[in-house]
Amino acid sequence: MRRPPSAAGPPLPIFAFFLSFVVLVVSVFFVANVFAPSVAAQATDRIAAAKKEGTLTVYTTIAEKDWPALVKPFETRYGIKVTVWRAGTADVLHRAIQETAARKYDVDVVHIGSPEMEALAREQVLLPITSPAQNDLQPGSVPAHRQWAATLLSVWVQAYNTKLIKKEDLPKAYKDLLNPKWKGKLGLEGKDEDWFASVVDVMGGGETGLKFFRDLASINGVSIREGHTLLNNMVISGEVPLALNVYNYMPEQAKKKGAPIDWFALEPAIARSNGVGVARHAPHPNAARLFYDYLLEEGQQYFVSMDYVPSNTKAASPLKGIKIVQTSPARSLDESGKWVTLLQQTLIRRR
Predict the structure, then answer these.
(1) What is the mean pLDDT of residues 163-191?
(2) Per the domain annotation, does 24 fall within a domain?
């Protein structure tokens, strides 16, 4: 009787095993000694080319008082002069688009809010970039087209009056806000439709997520305010014991000055980002690319010193270990009106 063939097959000949081992060793040697130096050489060549260009121009919205702390280390390290044109978000956006349409190529790097960066990408103002500097960024920091990357995050957290609320009594999750003990104690900044949309997603999306906010308004009520600074101050005064959406640096700075306020983050914390992109027709492309990588790596520590939350997960952060979800820049562009209306219908008019 013929015996069935062995499922394992014949043993691997010693020579074949030895040959496989040799191939593996050669491959590792090739990667370590050919590919890696090639990457390093490319970086060295880019730095040399950037230094030869000697300058670059950045359009940005970053505060004038903050810009020197960010730029000086770059200029000192590379000997490259950074010229800055600073204006409001809409002005930076319009100037970059209009100049590109007119084929007037003055800007090298743009740094503004991510919805506006996404608008520039749609207008083909920015250059798609793949860089090792992108690998350590928070999830959601680099869109699929890679025409910009998030540099810093403005994170909404929850702030509370420490004289009125004990730390051990704080809610642990968004759903805990439905507990009747929070009746008459909650405050909200009423123009953060992108925060609102993101929390709707977190709470199940669609009608399920909207129902969470309707229940919140019905059960406990929400005091609607305009302005994060105002809301933060009302927590300090005790008029709003618990605020649901203030930027993390606001209560932290007030706390350091002795105000009766502290903050915590319901996870996932929601963040709005600012991003950086290299102009598609940058007159100083190597210097622009070098500055792009700088903002995503070494420059992150300077954002932290300005009380921003860094996008790079390896940088020190006041929200280290907290899960963060970034708002969708595309949704902010395409659906802003829809979410403004839903926020008003769900919370403001309902109040």
Answers:
(1) 97
(2) no
Question: What pLDDT does 298 receive?
Answer: 96
The pTM for the full model equals 0.84
Residues 255 and 204 in one domain: yes
Residue 176: DSSP 8-state:
G
Helices and strands, counts by H and E, the chain: 13, 11
Does a structural domain hold residue 236? yes
Q: What is the pLDDT of residue 35?
A: 46
Return the residue matching tokens 């980002």: 273
* DSSP at 168: G
State which residues form the domain around 263.
154-270+333-348
Query: Regarding beta strands 186-189 and 55-60, do their DSSP bridges make them parallel or antiparallel, or are they unpaired?
Result: unpaired
Q: Please say whether the beta carbons of 153 and 328 come within 8 A.
A: no
In terms of domains, do 214 and 342 share one? yes
Residue 234 — pLDDT band, cuts 50, 70, 90? very high
Q: How far is CA 35 from CA 29, 39, 131, 134, 187, in A?
A: 10, 6, 16, 20, 56
Cβ-contact 156, 164 below 8 angstroms: no
Question: What local confidence, expressed as pLDDT, does residue 140 receive?
Answer: 94
Task: Kindly state whether residues 185 and 310 are assigned to the same domain.
Answer: no
* Nearest CA-CA partner of 206 in 338, 350, 323, 344: 338
Q: Max CA-CA distance within the chain?
A: 93
